[in-house]
Design a protein that fits this description.
This is Extracellular solute-binding protein. The protein is 43% helix and 18% strand. The termini are far apart. Helix 3 packs antiparallel against helix 12 and helix 5 crosses helix 15. The protein has two domains: 177 residues, Periplasmic binding protein-like II (D-Maltodextrin-Binding Protein, domain 2); 149 residues, 3-Layer(aba) Sandwich (D-Maltodextrin-Binding Protein, domain 2). Strand 1, helix 3 and strand 2 form a beta-alpha-beta unit. The chain contains 15 helices and ten strands.
């Protein structure tokens, strides 16, 4: 019996009967690069196999993904979205997300990883702390940094690199942490802005818009001290750079990648199922193995290398500083303008 033209075409393009039998495709928005690679290689295949579906990643920054969701809010094509916590706060306030189903996995998460009213949850834990150039510190005979206020220590003059608070979450976190130690809060950033020129400012060799230039500046010895997360430090180490991470004694600043089920998505039941899977201990254990993703599920396991670099994650999590994103988002435009005119003038 001759194959039909349709089946012949499918075979010609390498589409097997197993692929043909998959009746559904589900879309997830997330950062491209290492995160996308980790999830597509080792995490999502388990869900696909168990549910006979195809999960397609729509890559982009958090702002890109949010823009897509807003543009198609009445008939969204994305079922589940990964967004940085500041952007997620905006998405929730705009009505983009629907409440997560109340399942046992939510109780396994660190309390701070559950968004208000369970409109989303943290899927990856980050902690903005201090990154430093171990080669430079050894050459100078400097002990590892311990405090956010080390950025203001005169001995680091010309060796501090600070990401712009107006364009980088790392820079914003560093500014807010120092602002707190100077007597401020998210509702009062005056101490940080007014005292910057006499504390951290004199030590800064360059303000950079994001962390892309850090590799070069670490290699040349220009960058000695900078705000960063353990995951970002791990990526730099993988490139062979001499760096280490320190959780400041006052506490690192919480930096979550959150997920939410998109409101009005084409298959809410399957989207909820995917969200619960991604929050589970098995999925987050695989994400840690594949891409050094720090879990938000307390029952998930990290790799021995991650355990060694981070130490006691539960102890670090208890000290983490949680910022007020509602206040930040309400005032961000004003802060950005002031930062650009006053700090990076």
């Amino acid at each position: 019996m001759k194959l039909s033209r349709t089946l012949t075409a499918l075979v010609a393009f390498g589409i097997t009967s197993a692929a043909w039998s998959q009746s559904k495709t589900i879309y997830i928005g997330m950062n491209g690069g290492p995160m996308e690679k980790a999830y597509t290689s080792q995490v999502l295949p388990d869900f696909e196999k168990a549910n006979n579906v195809k999960v397609v990643v729509v890559p982009g920054t958090s702002s890109d993904v949010l823009a897509k969701l807003l543009a198609n809010r009445n008939s969204p094509q994305i079922h589940v979205a990964f967004l940085d916590d500041g952007v997620m706060a905006r998405a929730v306030s705009m009505g983009i997300c629907q409440k997560l189903d109340d399942t046992p996995v939510l109780k396994e998460l660190y309390p701070f990883a559950r968004l208000k009213d369970d409109m989303g949850a943290g899927v990856q834990l980050g902690m903005t702390g201090i990154g430093y150039n171990t080669k430079l510190f050894k050459e100078k005979g400097w002990a590892p940094p311990t405090s956010w206020m080390d950025f203001a220590d005169p001995k680091y003059k010309g060796k501090v690199v600070f990401q712009s608070a107006s364009s980088s979450t790392f820079g914003l976190h560093g500014f807010l942490a120092i602002n707190r130690l100077l007597g401020g809060s998210e509702k009062n950033v005056e101490p940080g802005f007014s005292k910057w020129a006499t504390t951290v400012g004199p030590n800064v060799v360059e303000y950079i818009p994001n962390s892309a230039k850090l590799s070069e500046m670490i290699t040349t010895g220009e960058a000695g001290l900078f705000p960063l997360t353990p995951t970002a430090i791990g990526d730099l180490k993988d490139k062979g750079l001499p760096v280490a991470y320190v959780a400041p004694k006052e506490g690192a600043v919480l930096l979550l990648v959150d997920l939410c089920v998109v409101k009005n998505n084409p298959d809410p039941a399957l989207a909820q199922k995917l969200a619960q899977f991604l929050l589970s201990a098995p999925a987050q254990t695989k994400a840690a193995e594949a891409g050094k993703q720090i879990p938000t599920n307390t029952q998930a396991k990290m790799t021995p290398e991650m355990d060694k670099n981070l130490g006691d994650l539960n102890a670090l999590a208890k000290k983490v500083t949680v910022v007020d994103w509602d206040t930040i988002n309400a005032n961000r435009a004003q802060w950005d303008q002031r930062w650009n005119q006053q700090i990076e003038k």
